[in-house]
């Protein structure tokens, strides 16, 4: 058998593991160092990354790395032939050059260059840091075998064009094919396996997020390629210039255009301190200026968990904002009694009664199953027989009795977990959770009409702001915005670190800026990735995979700034349609004005009864480049039927 030829090799390459649980104790796997090689064999040319310590661990090209276990598959019969349990195995990456769709290279003038690779199936590999150089050489090596074309919008980004060279094997042997997300068709476009239910396909997409989610980007020296035979590279210092544009319905684009050249000067602030909080009460313990306090929280959040323990009770309507100290004392006594009464109701149900109540029995079983896997990597919930896991169970069971018509639905456990971490008290946690569910209950209705409506509203906003991107989504069967389903269902719980989620939630709970501010956050993130999505020619499946892989790779403050600026642009726009005004809670009368806090300006607005169509051009410089995840793959032909039944299933299986 011919020996593989090494075309490129570089040691001391580092990847960084990121966890959504920011408070988890540091482990030796925070940074993984290894070797990158490019090898040529009779089957094609392959990229490989092997962590230190695994050089002698033998796996073939059909290894599935999952959950710290390497399961080696025989290509012919699919049988498992070996199992290893090294936690480093999930950081061993291998793909055929034919599977590569794009690569992004970041090279800082005084820093460590890194590269991110995106495969055609939508998989985003983590950032590979070249501590001793070599990223430019690897890019040159890629250019020798692949037709790389630099993005016109982002010169860090190189896209593999479709006409791959003939001397590269057309057979893909990526380890990620073993995810069974797609079949082994030779078509460029892969389809979901026919023998899998659509529910299974969607569930697998959610699991893929746990594979590869580290794309750490930063300021860099951008480079551009030439068409010369020796593939020389020349520096080209630029910044990401692609921006925000808009329309909703492809068939109604009549060229209406709104051009905003001046962006509002918006800034985030420092967290509210304990001292500021204490000074906000009068002698009776009543908050003196609720509006100002909410704005402070919106601008910077809260400085500590200790402060959150008090403020969240107001934000979640456990305590009325107008209550006095004595009134809150009485309220605590009342709520304590009510909680114990409801808890006794379900705890006193006998096994015989349960057997005659299928609905109660099924809900209890689901709660028991879900709490055992809720944030178990977080230090507050880790370990066997954890008492806090038991509290999650009891609180959810009590809520099931409190709101039996709704009961328990998967995803509620995710919303409850951070509240318990903050409150550290069963009763306080319960009543804060009740307040949160009063805001989000509609998300969990079986018909999912509310989330459908919110996703439709999100597309309506996109229609007005970015006609080009909205049209692209229509053409690729992605205008249903399903890729934001999980984000909306559990309010970004899986998209940011644990600490960032708490910060984001308290910002949203203030309701300071407008109604549906969370939609603007989604929209800002979507538009910031426009270049990646469109130049990679993503289809519906790849877009869904791409946004799953954004998990924990977004800078929260940048997202909040971008969302607020979008709001101000919309709120001060003189030609805002009624549909947009209603979504954001803006006045819709013809003589209404939006009073901006920016330089005390007041803007008259014309209200349309029908939505004008076209493009609103916004400068996207406020999207920090270091927070923008790297490019992702080309479109694989995707059947619109893949997600047709998405909203008919039980909320997302996490």
TrEMBL record:
Its main location: cytoplasm. The keyword Cytoplasm applies. It is found in: Cytoplasm. One of its GO terms (cellular component) is cytoplasm. Residues 302-512 form the Rab-GAP TBC domain. InterPro entries: Rab-GAP-TBC_dom (IPR000195), Rab-GAP_TBC_sf (IPR035969), SGSM1/2_RBD (IPR021935). It comes from the Eukaryota. One of its GO terms (molecular function) is GTPase activator activity. Keywords: Cytoplasm, GTPase activation, Phosphoprotein. The keyword Phosphoprotein applies. This is Rab-GAP TBC domain-containing protein. It comes from Rotaria sordida.
């Amino acid at each position: 058998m011919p020996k593989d030829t090494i075309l490129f090799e570089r040691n001391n390459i580092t990847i960084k593991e990121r966890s959504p649980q920011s408070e988890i104790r540091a482990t030796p796997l925070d940074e993984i160092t290894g070797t990158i090689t490019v090898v040529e064999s009779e089957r094609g040319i392959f990229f490989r990354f092997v962590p230190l310590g695994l050089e002698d661990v033998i796996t073939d090209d059909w290894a599935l790395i999952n959950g710290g276990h390497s399961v080696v598959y025989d290509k012919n019969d699919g049988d498992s032939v070996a199992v290893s349990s090294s936690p480093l195995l999930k950081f061993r990456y291998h793909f055929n050059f034919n599977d590569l769709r794009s690569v992004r290279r970041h090279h800082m003038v005084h820093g460590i260059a890194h590269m991110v690779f995106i495969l055609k199936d939508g998989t985003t590999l983590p950032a590979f840091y070249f501590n001793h150089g070599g990223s430019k050489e690897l890019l040159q090596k890629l250019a020798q075998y692949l037709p790389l074309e630099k993005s016109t919008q982002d010169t860090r980004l190189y896209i593999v064009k479709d006409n791959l060279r003939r001397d590269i094997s057309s057979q893909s042997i990526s380890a990620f094919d073993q995810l069974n997300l797609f079949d082994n068709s030779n078509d460029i476009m892969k389809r979901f396996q026919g023998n899998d239910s659509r529910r299974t396909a969607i569930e697998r997409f959610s699991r893929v997020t746990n594979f590869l989610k580290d794309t750490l980007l930063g300021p860099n020296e951008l480079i551009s390629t030439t068409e010369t035979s020796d593939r020389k590279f020349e520096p080209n210092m630029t910044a990401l210039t692609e921006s925000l544009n808009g329309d909703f319905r492809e068939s109604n684009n009549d060229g209406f255009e709104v051009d905003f050249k001046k962006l509002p000067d918006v800034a985030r602030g420092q967290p509210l301190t304990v001292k500021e909080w204490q000074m906000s009460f009068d002698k009776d313990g009543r908050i003196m200026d609720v509006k100002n306090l909410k704005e402070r929280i919106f601008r910077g959040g809260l400085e500590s968990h200790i402060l959150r323990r008090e403020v969240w009770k107001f934000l979640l309507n456990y305590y009325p904002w107008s209550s006095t100290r004595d009134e809150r004392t009485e309220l605590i006594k009342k709520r304590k009694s009510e909680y114990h009464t409801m808890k006794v109701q379900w705890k006193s149900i006998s096994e015989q009664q349960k057997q005659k109540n299928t609905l109660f029995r099924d809900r209890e079983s689901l709660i028991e199953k879900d709490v055992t896997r809720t944030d178990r990597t977080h230090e507050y919930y880790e370990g066997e027989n954890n008492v806090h896991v038991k509290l999650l169970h009891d609180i959810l069971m009590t809520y099931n009795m409190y709101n039996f018509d709704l009961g328990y639905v998967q995803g509620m456990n995710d919303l409850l977990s951070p509240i318990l971490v903050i409150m550290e008290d069963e009763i306080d946690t319960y009543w804060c959770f009740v307040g949160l569910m009063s805001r989000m209950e509609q998300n969990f209705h079986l018909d999912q009409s509310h989330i459908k409506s919110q996703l439709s509203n999100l597309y309506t906003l996109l229609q007005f702001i970015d006609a080009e991107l909205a049209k692209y989504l229509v053409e690729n069967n992605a205008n249903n915005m399903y890729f934001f389903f999980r984000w909306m269902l559990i309010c970004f719980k899986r998209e940011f670190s644990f600490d960032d989620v708490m910060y984001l939630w308290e910002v949203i709970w203030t309701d300071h800026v407008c109604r549906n501010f969370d939609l603007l956050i989604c929209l800002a993130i979507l538009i910031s990735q426009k270049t990646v999505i469109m130049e990679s020619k993503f289809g519906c499946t790849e877009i869904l995979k791409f946004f799953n892989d954004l998990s924990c790779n977004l800078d929260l403050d940048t997202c909040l700034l971008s969302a607020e600026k979008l709001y101000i642009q919309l709120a001060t726009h003189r030609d805002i349609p009624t549909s947009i005004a209603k979504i954001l809670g803006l006045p819709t009368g013809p003589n209404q004005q939006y009073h901006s806090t920016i330089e005390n300006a007041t803007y008259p607005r014309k209200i349309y009864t029908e939505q004008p169509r076209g493009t609103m051009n916004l400068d996207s410089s406020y999207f920090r480049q270091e927070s923008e995840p790297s490019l992702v793959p080309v479109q694989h032909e995707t059947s619109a039927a893949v997600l047709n039944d998405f909203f008919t299933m039980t909320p997302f299986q996490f």
